[in-house]
Amino acid sequence: MYLSSLSLVPVMLALTAARYNIGMLFNSDSSYRTSASYSRIINFTLGRQSDTSINLILREYQSGPSERYRAICSLVEEDVVAVITISSSTSTAQEADHLNLMGIPLIAISATNPFIKTSSRPLLIRMSPPDIFQGVAIFDLLKHYSWTDFCVLASSDDYGINGMIGLLGKASSDRDMKLVGVEYFDPAKIRNKTDLRPSLENIRNSFSRVIVLNCGASFADMVFDLAKEMGLMAEGFVWIVTDSIASQFIAPDNRFDGILGTVPIKKEKEKVESFKFDYFQEVHYADPVDVFAWTLMLYDTLNVIDQALQNLTGVRVPSSAGANCSTMELWPGGRDIYKSIISQSLPGLTGDVSFDGQGLVNSNAYTLKNIKEKIFQPVGW
Length: 381
What we know:
This protein has helices at about 35-45, 65-75, 90-100, 130-145, 160, 165-170, 195-205, 215-230, 245, 270-280, 295-310, 335-340, and strands at about 20-25, 55-60, 80-85, 105-110, 125, 150-155, 180-185, 210-215, 240, 260-265, 345-350, 350-355, 365-370, 375-380. The protein is of the alpha/beta class and about 375 residues long. A hairpin with a 2-residue loop joins strand 13 and strand 14. Helix 2 packs across helix 3, helix 4 crosses helix 6 and helix 11 crosses helix 12 (about 335-340).
């Protein structure tokens, strides 16, 4: 069941600037924090812009294609001219398939599958660099520390498989590197940590002390729980986790000092610290976990969309072309919105935000994080 945005995003005061409805999709079963965190960031962001062009409408849905489709159609009925999503690459692809049929742009914050942009999804905009760059960043990390023997544990979905292409490709062409094992697990079959034992047994039998973990954050705690029981997190082991985990919450019992992780942003430190100071000063009911990689990207995304809308005049909404989930008519105005968004170049909290001709953010920088005193802390990029 999706939830109305009315309980999450307060109605903004009527202003002189033209206002457009922007939708936002949030999967309540995902591991990308709670919708409350995003709502607080949204309210804070838009509240700082007295002449904003955005009226944001949030739809939260539970996992499943039918719930997702209903949430999308609900947004289309609100005449949204673009939609923001924070979801997995698999969910984002399905959302883009529906919205692109009606000519409505989709801005993906957390989808990193390098193959998600296709000819059938021409209006998909990506705020995160594809995972192929993350794999190269991890390879560089392995080389830097001379960790020449390593193994990979990954999920067998789009994220897990495609996310390792860059790493495996670089390792296979380097004679000094030795990939001693690759284990994939089917996320659809994992009900508890016991289901992961065969994969972790193979990892243990590889005798590798360096393990790269690439899977959804919801599986990380199960992996670490079992790995701890099996002695795979003892002194001398190194774990490197990808952005899905490094950007999310890990249970306190599994926050072992020494775990390394990559996050697909290079923060503007002074700007972020200033943002955090203002945010926690003004939002008295804020949660300390509100400010993290995806909410910083959301802040930048809202500013880019706002600037793009202010550069347009006379935009007709989807209903003017009869676009809805019943007719599936194509709305031509979406192409103008898309072009205006990807033509923007703005300084943001996550660095300078600009796009290539395919709607991909021009950034392949990663922040390296290390768990110290139970907390992921940036240590380089």
